Amino acid sequence: MRTIKSNRVILGCLFILFLFCTSQLMAQDVQISMKYAQGIKHNEWSAFKGGFELSADYIYSINNLRISSGLDFRTIQWGNQATISLGLAKVLSPKIELGLEMQHGLALFHPQSLYTFSAGANCDLTLVNNDKLQMGLSIEARYSICPAYINYGQIYHVTEIPLGIFIRF
Amino acid sequence: MKLVPKVVICGMMFYMLILLSCSYLPENVHVDSRLTYNETPDYIALELKENEADITLMFLPGGLVDPHAYLSLMQRIALDSINIVIPKFTSNLAIFELSKYESLLDVFPDAGSLYIAGHSLGGIAALSAVSKSPDEFDGLILLGTYPSESFAISDWDRSVLSLYAENDSLSTPQEVLGASSFLPEACMISDVSEIDSVELLSPKTFYYQISGGNHAQFGDYGAQEGDGVATISVEEQHEQVSSAIIKFVRHNENY
Asked: What range does the domain containing B249 cover?
């Protein structure tokens, strides 16, 4: 029971860290994304169903650069995970951005969650752009690993192609 | 909407989502060297080496339980020449992919006699599979779970084994026995060996209570919130459960 409580404390700290990061950035936009990740590699190359992802990010723009920080929740081979993300993107045109993103967080388990890490490169294509909101599509190549899960299952790292839609407002 | 309320609302939603989606990790993962272990993104398979078993048991894990938490129970059954397939589900919730068994039937076309089993929420998914494809399965095994009216299979022409634990507070013995009208004719047994003495001229539901057992010990993932306290060890519960399953399957194969 004590470990379950410590789990919640860690998750609470992640949430506070998220609030701190976003307030420090003096964010201008909120981005909500939904993605489906198509798996392409685990221990071997093969197509498999990855998972679904919901994320909320704050985006701060400086000239042609966008810095993002947010929370991600997704389903993955080892169950569910929640991460804090940090990204940097270059605006190539009003419609296209290329960026890099990394995520640190927890694979969500009782009695103790496990550390997980992801890194990837993404391309965002804006399809709707007006004063109130932007909407578009995104594609990414991402590697994720949950190192301690090797003690439980054979598949503890995956490479996926997440495809998604995003809304900024 | 101002920025701070947006942050707070998003953050609180995520926090709730996170708290509700933790899975139970296995306590112990060890695979017997006499078994072949094969894991893919879709399933875990166990089979006895140098053996071509013609019986397969598809086991659906409980909700929010890591599928590896059932390896210690399932390998006892695999060692008796029954192939085991444990599907993996999105978010470890079988209820999200009720049709996953169909794709696995294609992966194992030579499964032989096919039995489906499930623990807790996995049992509900197993009941759903039987309701949807009654001819695909030769028997059903329920661990710490019971059907509701919407998954009633009382007119199914195959037999069922329902195992329930004395100290299970999540699927109590009263709840399990109270749902007997949704399954084939009930047959109470107090000892596993009694299964052999029952003639399966018509489909039966064998009810067997694991004395001293609880809900979580059908798997091997430690204590579960809301569950009762077991007075027998995980190993003892697994021994009783695996013996009952093996007896049921072997007896059923004679008919």
From this structure: 34-253
